[in-house]
Amino acid sequence: MHIPEKASNLKMKEFPQIRLLIQGEPASGKTTSALTFPNPIVIDGDNGLTNFAGKDIIYYPLHDYDWVIKYIEKDPTKVGAQPNRRDAILKILREDSLKMTSEQTLICDGWTAFQSAFDFQTDVEPALTKGGKVDDYAFWAKKIEYSEKIMIYLCSLKCHVVVTCHEARVRDPNTGQLLEKSQPLMQGKFYSQMKRWFTDCFRMIVEETKDKTGKVTGSEYFWQIKSDNKFDAKTRLNIDEFKVEPHFKVFEQYRSKV
After folding, report:
1. Among the four residues 79, 125, 142, 219, which has the most C-beta atoms within 10 Å?
2. Preceding omega of 29 cis (within 30 degrees of 0)
């Protein structure tokens, strides 16, 4: 039996890379659940770590324009420097993240901010037609190229990856019923192929807890790991439950038994 000399064997991996996409509504617990992964480093695009002030969390303050200018510009003091968050994201993935180990987790919080970074920078540097007009076709082509480049970087990392994103829901204006299944919130055609880059795709669920009188006493948070008529999930987990506790420990079954 021929075994290629340069090939790898999964038997040698104690814990294969997890690339998890978590989508859900704002303040539904996406970031909190992502931070249960081992040794997280966060690309904070949404300034969503306010609740974790004082905690030992390493992060890139992508929302901080002064930090972005210093990180991306060779001469951050130059007049008119723009906070190029688009290229800052690519630099983080291209340079820093490749050095992360299999015992760490890169959290991209969140995908909507990554898309906004592209939109903002493209407005500053628009592609033009030969006639000098803004080339709208080039915008969408470059946005897909940018999104795919990010995914290729994420797939090449040794560390685990968690990407959080808001979700889009299309409802009937009269009945309020969902017309389509929930999708990651973004413009363009890339969202339809986005899930193929991930090993697992979950949805955050928040449910009210009530006492015997029906009074609301709090909330419970879950990952939806099975598909239904509202959401198409994706997972390699061998679990029968529709929803699970939103914690990294559910992935322990991936750990090598060798």
Report:
1. 142
2. no
Extract the tokens encoding 70: 């210093």
Q: Where are the beta strands (DSSP E) in the chain?
A: 19-24, 40-44, 58-60, 105-109, 160-168, 183-184, 200-210, 216-224, 243-244
> Which position has the token pair 């890169």?
106
| Per-residue tens of pLDDT for the chain, all 258 residues | 766 776 666 565 667 889 999 999 888 899 999 999 999 999 999 888 888 888 899 999 998 988 998 898 766 565 555 789 999 999 999 999 999 999 999 999 989 899 999 988 888 877 767 676 767 677 888 888 999 999 999 999 999 999 999 886 554 455 555 445 565 655 555 666 788 999 999 999 998 888 888 888 888 999 999 998 888 899 989 899 999 999 999 998 877 543
Rounded to two decimals, what is the model's pTM?
Answer: 0.84
Positive or negative, the Cα torsion across 95, 101, 104, 108?
Answer: positive
